[in-house]
Amino acid sequence: MNRMSDCGMRRWLAAVVVGLAVANLPVLAEEEKKDTKNALREELLKLNAVTGEEAQLQKLRLLLKDKTKAKQLVIEAGQMLKESKGKENPFNFNGASIIARLAHINKQYDIAEPFYEYMIEAATKLNSGSKLVTAYVGLVSLYFDSKKYALASETCEKFMDLTGPEEVEREQPFMLERLAKAKAKEEKFDEALRWADLLIDGSRDGAWYFLQTKGWILREQGKLPAAIDAYLESLDKLEANKVLKPDLKERLKDATRYALTGLYVDNKEIDKAAKHLQILIKRNPDNPTYKNDLGFIWCDNDMNLQESEKLIREALELDRKEKEKLKEEGKIDEVKLNAAYLDSLGWVLFKQQKYKEALEPLKQAAADEDDGNHMEIWDHLADCYMALGMKKEAIATWEQALKFEDLSKRDAERRRKISEKLKKARTE
After folding, report:
1. Would you write out the chain's pLDDT as a tens digit for each of its 428 residues?
2. Number of H helices, E strands in the chain
3. Distance linking the first and last C-alpha atoms of the chain
4. What pTM was estimated for this model as a whole?
5. DSSP codes, 208-272
6. Which of the residues 251, 283, 294, 299 could staple to 348 if both were Cys, CB 3.0 to 4.6 A apart?
7. Which domains does the chain have, with CATH numbers?
8. Residues 6+ apart with CB under 8 A from 404
9. Which residues does 161 contact at the CB level (< 8 Å), separation at least 6?
10. Distance CA 230, CA 207 (A)
């Protein structure tokens, strides 16, 4: 009888082992999938025990560090909520609150919505005013972020119909403000302004605040001079306010001035915008935002280019030092340069025709996955590519820019201009 050689035996055994392994792959994969699912569910259920706003925010920050896993957790939580229909919900208010916010931040809006709705249901049963406020404010914010303004209006109106507890009644003027803004987003401006005027007339010491609401609505309507007047009146009322503590009053005045700078830029009154930013820089020399913004609006309008570059570089350095301090304190994991400031630096270098120098900060800004996905940043990068004769890269960059959503009314005009530049580049 022929005997199999040692070499042949080894080959036969190897084939058998491989065959068995391949046969078992679907089973092993299914087991691994089940284990992952169970681990995710176990982690999700532990969220029910996280109490207190500070502890919940800390947990939320930890979950957001791993973006891929955070999205998996949200998907699994959504599945658990669906499976619980007609049964006891696996999440209490605490767990639902963390999941809703996690989904909201991740833009998993379809999953966040039922969690906010469940929070409202749970808070109503508990008759907890603070929880009702948290749930309703979260849901309205979700509808704003997902541009479902009619649903935002409807939810605000439901909250306005609530009677008690005390926390709900205190929040109702601010919910009415959200209703006015939602109506403005629906382009129901007469109704929005009527609610804003009602808030102004009904608020003695807080009229300055609701004047800014009116200014916001007028800006949405495209009535920039009227919006500016509303913010200027708010600034005057803040100055005359005798109730606010002096340090708080000064901070609120700064915030109002900053809002005015954006309005003046929209209204092509660059000198007035610059004047307010110069006041803010003098009052807050260590604030990088004011320095960056002044540098950017000057360079964007081909003014004071060398001074603009100096201000933007100072903003980047201030921001870096601030983040290094936060990292030392354990509040952030990495020091990452601000994408908007990098874009400003690239743009001011571009304006000075330093195209090679401009390219690197613009590429860095666009590469930021969190803050670089903005049409304006990618438009600047494409302009730089074109100036360097890199037409293929410019076209690809403009194509990507058009995929981003409009974040402001200015973006609609930018979208039109990008489309024109892209068409011209393709035909040349």
Report:
1. 454 455 555 555 555 445 555 556 566 567 778 888 999 999 999 999 999 999 999 999 999 989 999 999 999 999 999 999 889 999 999 999 999 999 999 999 999 999 999 999 999 999 999 999 999 999 999 999 999 999 999 999 999 999 989 999 999 999 999 999 999 999 999 999 999 999 999 988 889 999 999 999 999 999 999 999 999 999 999 999 999 999 999 999 999 999 999 999 999 999 999 999 999 999 999 999 999 999 999 999 999 999 999 999 999 999 999 999 999 988 888 899 999 999 999 999 999 999 999 999 999 999 998 899 999 999 999 999 999 999 999 999 999 999 998 888 789 999 999 999 999 999 98
2. 20, 0
3. 81
4. 0.87
5. HHHHHHHHHHHHHHT-HHHHHHHHHHHHHHHHH-SSS-HHHHHHHHHHHHHHHHHHHHHTT-HHH
6. 299
7. 187-266 (1.25.40), 285-329+336-367 (1.25.40), 373-428 (no CATH)
8. 373, 374, 375, 378
9. none
10. 11
Sequence letter at residue 397: T
* Beta carbons of 295 and 311 less than 8 angstroms apart: yes
How many residues are given for the chain? 428
Read off the tokens for 405: 């959503």
Dihedral of alpha carbons 138, 139, 142, 148, sign: negative
Tell me the C-alpha distance between 337 and 358, whole Å.
16
Cis previous bond, 165, omega within 30:
yes
Taking the C-alpha atoms of residue 213 and residue 115, their distance in angstroms, rounded to an integer, is 29
